[in-house]
Amino acid sequence: MTNSRKTRGRATEHLVARAFAADGWPHALPTGAGAPGRDITGLPGIAVEVKARTAFSPQAFLRQAVANAGQDLPIVVLRCNGAGPATIDDWPAFTTFGRMRELLRTAGYGNTTAPTQVGQLQRIVAAAAVSWVSAATPDEATAALNEVAQAADRLVAVALTEATR
């Protein structure tokens, strides 16, 4: 790799990190072109691989992102030749097809009734809330309210886990 390509790669990582920082990930930092592992740190639950290359090898790029992601969401950001900093929002970015479908379902697209842990826990919270409202005694109301609180805690934990996968 020539020095100009390394310089472009490093500059691209900095641009991507700054874009993430501007959008609410203030700790997003580039690791440096050629460094092992993720190209951008400070993105909890997200593993970003940044590519600024002439060669287009999406499967190889994605394999690298997945290998560095563990349980986190692997994302490849690609800066094509001719794409400057002013067009960063138009640069391609991609992940695996399975993770993309999961993200789309989580965002409310497609069959949003497909069974997920979040959906199952939402139904538990709703049922427990109905029990609480229709409780005949204070003890029944307290038990139902405790069930709502426990289910809500599980819902939040699972939702956070699913959101960062």
Short overview:
By secondary structure, the chain is mostly helical. The protein is built from 5 helices and 5 strands. It is elongated and about 75 Å long.
Summarize the structure in words:
This protein is mainly α and 165 residues long. It folds into 2 domains: 3-106, 3-Layer(aba) Sandwich (Trna Endonuclease, Chain: A, domain 1); 117-163. Helices cover 52% and strands 11% of the residues. It has helices at 3-22, 58-69, 97-106, 117-133, 138-163, and strands at 29-30, 40-41, 46-51, 73-78, 93-94. The protein has a 3-stranded mixed sheet. The protein has a two-stranded antiparallel sheet with strand order 1-2. The longest helix is centred in the last third of the chain and has 26 residues, at 138-163. It is elongated, with a radius of gyration of 22 Å. The two termini are 33 Å apart.
Provide tags for this entry.
5 helices, Trna Endonuclease, Chain: A, domain 1, single chain, two-stranded antiparallel sheet, 165 residues, mainly alpha
Strand order of the largest sheet: 3-4-5
Largest sheet: 3 strands, mixed
Summed up, the domain count is 2
DSSP strand count: 5
Q: How is the topology of this model organized?
A:
Blueprint: H1 3-22, E1 29-30, E2 40-41, E3 46-51, H2 58-69, E4 73-78, E5 93-94, H3 97-106, H4 117-133, H5 138-163
Parallel strand pairs: 3-4
Antiparallel strand pairs: 1-2, 4-5
